[in-house]
Design brief:
Length: 126
């Protein structure tokens, strides 16, 4: 076998993390985390309708500190996924592809996600 002089395909060990790649990966991870949340929501609704012990156990768990942390993480994931989805809708119509706009909208998505999550959390607790 001879050594090929062709360049290797780029991968995560070669590229430095950038906001564009980080937000893309985060969008996928929040989508997965929201799928977990949806499954637990279905279990909670099943417990509410047909299995009161499941409903009670989940309600007690989500009243605990760890449960509250999970709930907030799902709210934050939802907020980020929503805001980044809106960003993608703008990209779908051809807006915001210039590099400065991509970076600006990325930071805006992060700020908006935290503000929205905080607002939802505050209103839910009021």
């Amino acid at each position: 076998m001879s050594q090929s002089s062709r360049p290797l395909s780029p991968h995560l060990q070669i590229y430095k993390p950038q906001i564009t790649s980080t937000l893309s990966i985060l969008h996928r991870l929040t989508g997965l985390w929201l799928a977990v949340a949806a499954a637990i929501l279905v279990l909670w609704l099943y417990g509410l309708a047909l299995a009161p012990p499941i409903f009670t156990a989940l309600s007690r768990f989500f009243a605990s500190g760890l449960g509250q942390l999970l709930l907030f993480s799902w709210i934050l994931a939802f907020s980020y996924h929503l805001c980044n989805g809106i960003r993608h809708l703008f990209w779908d119509i051809g807006k915001g592809f210039e590099l400065p706009q991509v970076y600006r909208s990325g930071y805006l998505v992060l700020a908006a996600a935290f503000i929205l999550a905080g607002l939802i959390w505050f209103l839910a607790k009021a």
